[in-house]
Design a protein that fits this description.
Layout lengths: L22 H22 L20 E6 L5 E3 L2 E3 L4 H10 L5 E6 L5 H14 L4 E4 L11
Parallel strand pairs: 1-4, 4-5
Antiparallel strand pairs: 1-2, 2-3
Helix pairs in contact: 2-3
Length: 146
Amino acid sequence: MIGPGGYGGDNRHTQPMAEINTTPMVDVMLVLLVIFIITAPLLTHSVNIDLPQASSQPNPEKPETVSLSINAEGKLFWNDAPFEDAELGSRLAIAAQKQPQPELHIRADNTTTYQRLATVMSETQTAGIVKIGFITDPSHKATDSK
């Protein structure tokens, strides 16, 4: 038979036990206290990190693109708008003075003479245009005559 308040066959004590057993609670609290004492110094320890520095410089502007087209008859087109040959030098000079300087894309018909294209490129260089590109049409492939 188990002692007083036990689970035996003794039916004399049928009331529940009114005492609180604080021993397990005190054990848990002491364990938590030890954990906090150990981890508290680690929370105040700092680690030096070298972070990258941000710069607030503006992004450089993309220069505009000017399309200079030459058709089969040798007529000139500035951004797909026709103009006279006499205006080419002045238009190129104005474009050369812009900051940033625009890129000049030359598009020539495949039947345009080399002399006409060379003249336009010479005037472009004389005006001071630095960035010149050539636009080609990949649908017209050259054929070898063997």
